[in-house]
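Reopening this one. Same input as before:
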Amino acid sequence: MFVEPDRFVFVDGFSLNLVFASVAAGDVMSVGGKGDGPGEYQLPQLLGPLDNGGVAVWDGLKMRLTLVNPDGTVAQTENYIDMASSQPIFLVANVSLVARFADGTVAFREPRRIPRSGQRQLVGEYRDTIRYLIQGPGQSPRPIARLLDGEMHRFVRGTSRSETSVIFGHWSLSTQVGQHLALTQTDLGFVQILDPSGAQVGRVPLPPGIAVTGDDIAAERASRRALAEERAKMFAQLSGDPASMEGIDERIAALPVRRLARPIDRMSGDLDGRLWLRLFRPGAQWEQWQVWDIAEADPVLEFVLTLPTGEEFLDAAGNRVLLRQRDEMDVSYLVVREIEGYGSGR
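Same output, byte for byte:
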């Protein structure tokens, strides 16, 4: 993500270093790494830029927030182990920090799963809930919103079991946008904009969902079948047992489909406090994003940006976008581009 208009940071997934890069000077600085000490991480996730040009980093495995200065030194750490103490061990990493505001207030996303031994259906469709909480400095967390999580399907047939998302089903998404938190459940038709107190201060309308075709559905089932077979082979290699494809075709065929697909599948906030919504279009050979100014109570659609195949949007600052590209050898690159027609109403 951008930390300043001429500077960005990314996480090196192998070393777990934070890498700061200057667009203007060409300087690169690497700090951090794997470990338990200050400025070291087990599962680092970039949370948001700081006003001084540094970055806030969330470590979900350690339940720790680290504020990193522009020079790579650690400014502050906060531990939130208490947030996970009431959760089953398999959910601890899913209790996550989703926003950190300038006054030190933080927002959490907490999954609230229906126990399999309780009300959850043994088979078929279900939706868990997500609770969002705000915690000010020196205060206890308090809930501010509750949404339904993604549409899921549970399959049980003999020894074959799986839990996976409904094809083209609805999701719940959240992102920090400047000093706001954006939340949506994609079947509700809007994005809520909350301030650091948890109060709703605006709404952004979602575009309508699109009707999917039989070819879209067939392509998605084929993609999921290929992924399930790949996982089965990977587990077989790890265990040393023969790969079992038992029940894969039956599980994939049993998955329900939403004929009217969710309208978006990603949200992001940029350095200028704009909200980016990625339109969901099955089979499209491009990414298309709506960009909203949410500064007022009635948000305004500023422009729509289309990216070609092979370019993945990561962040934006003014007329610049930070993209991820892969070459023919599947090597990843970070690329900064300027938006054509920016400021001309297109």
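So the earlier flakiness isn't reproducible anymore. For the record, The radius of gyration is 21 Å.
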